[in-house]
Design brief:
Length: 276
């Protein structure tokens, strides 16, 4: 009904009211931060993404075809703000559930943390290249959980011929990331949580071109680098400081998504964090 008659959204009650208010609040917050950046901008000393975007906007202000516009700045920052919290937090919740389900994996990760980092300093991104097991764990968590199965909607910018089909310019495209992340030709037993999908026989990290948790191509996830850092640093820090304990037998833990539509959401569960 709302899709066909969007004008009624303002008049009928429902949970969408809270959603729309949250979206408006986030936009207001972002506009406030962008204004603060504009007032204190130093083009010779950019502090972050917003500063760099504002500098590029100024450089291309006479270019009518420039994509560095105020509207695109709001959209990009909003995407990073939203995608950088929801998907990352969902992945972390799913990660902890899978680590509870597979305590032998958790134990090996903690052995690697002790060997590479120890207990007396915080993890850093430089450590990841020396931690193939942890790297494989994060990749397999993302492959197995398949957080965004159908990706975000995209559109073709020109007429495209694909497998004898013509896709007209402007057509909305939904791609199945699941079909790649669960491809049995690349991942043996794709329905099983198995670190062998990303580790070779020598225990080295094994890269796969089929790992498309962040999509692929020019319009892949803008926050991929941020998400990779967050997942590594958060998980590594948690496992460095705590032992995870399930309140039920690990064999009884069900990892089936509680909701499976636009995104896979893990079921509710309880766990104990025991200081190491």
């Amino acid at each position: 009904v709302c899709n066909n008659f969007p004008a009624v959204i303002d008049y009928i009650p429902g949970r969408h009211k809270k959603l729309l208010k949250n979206v408006a609040d986030i936009k207001s917050y972002l506009l406030e931060k962008i204004k603060e950046h504009q007032e204190s901008l130093d083009i010779n000393n950019p502090r972050d993404f917003i500063d760099c975007f504002l500098i590029k906007m100024e450089q291309e202000k006479h270019n009518q075809q420039s994509e560095f516009t105020f509207e695109n700045l709001i959209a990009a920052v909003s995407d990073l703000f939203g995608a950088g919290t929801e998907t990352t937090s969902t992945t972390l919740r799913y990660a902890l559930l899978l680590l509870l389900k597979h305590p032998e994996v958790t134990a090996k990760v903690q052995e690697e943390i002790d060997r590479v980092i120890g207990r007396h300093r915080s993890p850093s991104m430089q450590d990841r290249s020396h931690m193939p097991y942890m790297d494989a764990v994060i990749h397999e968590i993302q492959r197995y959980t398949d957080i965004v199965p159908t990706n975000l909607p995209h559109a073709v910018t020109c007429d495209v011929k694909f497998r004898n089909y013509i896709i007209p310019k402007g057509t909305t495209i939904l791609t199945s990331l699941t079909s790649v992340l669960y491809d049995a030709k690349e991942f043996h037993n794709p329905e099983v949580f198995d670190l062998g999908h990303f580790l070779d026989e020598s225990g080295n990290f094994k890269k796969s071109d089929y790992f498309m948790a962040f999509s692929a191509g020019k319009r892949m996830c803008l926050g991929e680098g941020l998400a990779r850092m967050e997942l590594f640093l958060f998980l590594t820090t948690i496992l460095q400081k705590f032992t995870l304990k399930s309140v039920v037998d690990p064999k009884d833990i069900d990892t089936t998504p509680a909701a499976s539509g636009f995104g896979h959401v893990p079921p509710s569960y309880q766990l104990c964090f025991i200081p190491v």
